[in-house]
Amino acid sequence: MTWLVTGGAGYIGSHVTRRLLAAGHRVVVLDDLSTGLPDRIPAGVPLVIGSVTDPAALLRVITDHGVTAVVHLAARKSVPESLARPTFYYRENVGGLVALLDAMLATGVRRLLFSSSAAVYGNPPTSLVTEHTPTRPINPYGRTKLEGEHLIRAVGEAHGLSWIALRYFNVVGTDSPLLGDRGKTNLVPLILTALTTGEPLTVAGTDHPTPDGTPVRDYVHVADLADAHLAAAARLAGGPVAATYNVGTGRGYSVRDVIACAEHVTGLAVPHLSGPRRAHDPSEVVADPAAIAAALGWTARRGLTDMISSSWRTARDGSRRPAPAV
């Protein structure tokens, strides 16, 4: 099979690209490089610079490279940005998916692996969420991901598209510093930024109904997430499927737990202060990963210490890099 990986130069996409390549698949990457890095693409993998919102670019890459299946990761993913720029998020995330599906239908490609998110659950009624937990997203980012799932299901029913949607929980860690998360919006990168700069981290909310008052989340290593994509790719190759799976560990950690783990890994104290809760911030969201284990044989193998250790190596590598010339 030849896989098109949209967003394959990104943090998660570069890990998925390498997993597919190592398993013997042919891979081509489409990325607009707005957040992706070309250095992350392995030698021999074609990189097409373009946007998933560009129908002509999609048709060219699919036909020129003989694509037979797609992993769709290209999307905007910042919750605060989505609140400030909802039309931009719908244009990029939903509009980009519409353009991709049109190109797939026009070229006869009928296998899709979709990057979704735990953000579709919003404030769930229970802390442990299954794929049957009500989906009530509370921000434009989460709504665009849920709209994407609905659209894919509709196209599957109308046109015989075979698809799997993976709902990621909190993705952390890296296989190597080159592939690490260079963003500054998620908790672990923020903790490590506090360690490298000395600027205190603000803990958003210390009065939640959790053991230590801070929010609890399920953190999954990006290498385990890449393995989940490989398992899903194998299932798509095996015949028709229409399925949605949570990708998490089934274990929750509070913000204070993550800070304590970072201090253990680095041997340094994390400077931090307490701040108010974020609006609509759930107190606890943890995946029930039983469905993906039963259907695809996937379970997470790496723990929080592995996630933070690999992230710390990336942070130190980044701090040693010279500043770019201006």
UniProtKB/TrEMBL annotation:
Gene3D superfamilies: NAD(P)-binding Rossmann-like Domain, UDP-galactose 4-epimerase, domain 1. Pathway: Carbohydrate metabolism; galactose metabolism. It comes from Longispora fulva. Its EC number is 5.1.3.2. It catalyses: UDP-alpha-D-glucose = UDP-alpha-D-galactose. GO terms for biological process: galactose catabolic process via UDP-galactose, Leloir pathway. It comes from the Bacteria. It is an enzyme of class 5 (isomerase). One of its GO terms (molecular function) is UDP-glucose 4-epimerase activity. InterPro entries: Epimerase_deHydtase (IPR001509), NAD(P)-bd_dom_sf (IPR036291), UDP_G4E (IPR005886). Pfam families: Epimerase (PF01370). The keyword Isomerase applies. This is UDP-glucose 4-epimerase. Belongs to the NAD(P)-dependent epimerase/dehydratase family. Keywords: Carbohydrate metabolism, Isomerase, NAD.
